[in-house]
Amino acid sequence: MNIRENIEKSEEYSIIPQGSKSKNSMGRVRSEELDEVRTAYMIDRDRIIHCKSFRRLKRKTQVYIKTWSDHYRTRLTHTLEVAQIARTIGRGIGLNEDLIEAIALGHDIGHVAFAHSGEEVLNELLTNGFSHNQNSVRVLTYIENNGQGLNLSKEVLDGILYHSGFSNNSSKAFTLEGQVVKYSDKIAYVNHDIDDSLRAGILSMEDIPKDILEILGNTHGERVDTLVKDCIYRTKSNINSNDIQVSLSKDIDYNFKKLRDFMFKEVYNGEFLKEERDKARFILIQLYKYFYFHEEKLPEFYKSIAKEEGLNQGVADYIAGMSDEYCIDLFKDIYIPS
């Protein structure tokens, strides 16, 4: 029995029956020989963390564009916080931590520069629209590895595809591990964006509704702790009642959604960030127009996409992969005289 088989055997005891065992994976689009050390989900995690798109997350905005301090979150630090929260919840429930980590590390890999402003621009410009979760799957299955993709397992891709949305009607991943990442993403960004907004002076603690803080907690750590523990205990209760889904308890869920709505109103769509969002939109629109009308300037890989799938798609794929700084530098090179 090799090391991988030993790990798979240990999963039979450490993972609950409703969790995802590595040996039961639905597999990959292209079949591969089994590794003698790593399980399927361990391989997926390693492929994601070593790919170029993952490294570019360090230069992509979370909320604050071109920040002046090293302490503000980037898309990469957000991803790491999601992964840690998700692993804690997953371990508490008894799920597959390797699958959780792979989904968490890849969930935002298709995000555009300049946070959600970039996503909105491409969504407006493309006939079929654009969403970062669908683009994350596209990057991992096609764009990465010079058009070959990373050949990830179906469970990982499904978890990445369905990590967005927070309404009761939104689609869920078919694994509990994928559902854990969906909740962990929200727990991470709502709370760390409050922390960054306090640091930036956009919010004060007095601005946040007191009734929410009384339920969830007054500090960043208290709120995360409340939400993580509630998610674990509520999900375990669900499973014991044969309701196989990840969720929060009714009162915690209600107050958490109120806190998220508050952040959208006061920060994400607030007036303070409007000027910076408008600048980001302008840069991305001008870059899109430039490469649309100067197809010959596209890198060869994206020219091939344009030939196969249309110029809109080739330009969108090129822009979607850019970091904030690369967008700004490219804009300067194209439009500002030297």
From TrEMBL:
<dbReference type="InterPro" id="IPR051094">
    <property type="entry name" value="Diverse_Catalytic_Enzymes"/>
</dbReference>
<keyword id="KW-0378">Hydrolase</keyword>
<dbReference type="GO" id="GO:0016787">
    <property type="term" value="F:hydrolase activity"/>
</dbReference>
<dbReference type="InterPro" id="IPR026875">
    <property type="entry name" value="PHydrolase_assoc_dom"/>
</dbReference>
<dbReference type="Pfam" id="PF13286">
    <property type="entry name" value="HD_assoc"/>
</dbReference>
<protein>
    <submittedName>
        <fullName>Deoxyguanosinetriphosphate triphosphohydrolase</fullName>
    </submittedName>
</protein>
<dbReference type="Pfam" id="PF01966">
    <property type="entry name" value="HD"/>
</dbReference>
<feature type="domain" description="HD">
    <location>
        <begin position="75"/>
        <end position="190"/>
    </location>
</feature>
<dbReference type="InterPro" id="IPR003607">
    <property type="entry name" value="HD/PDEase_dom"/>
</dbReference>
<dbReference type="InterPro" id="IPR006674">
    <property type="entry name" value="HD_domain"/>
</dbReference>
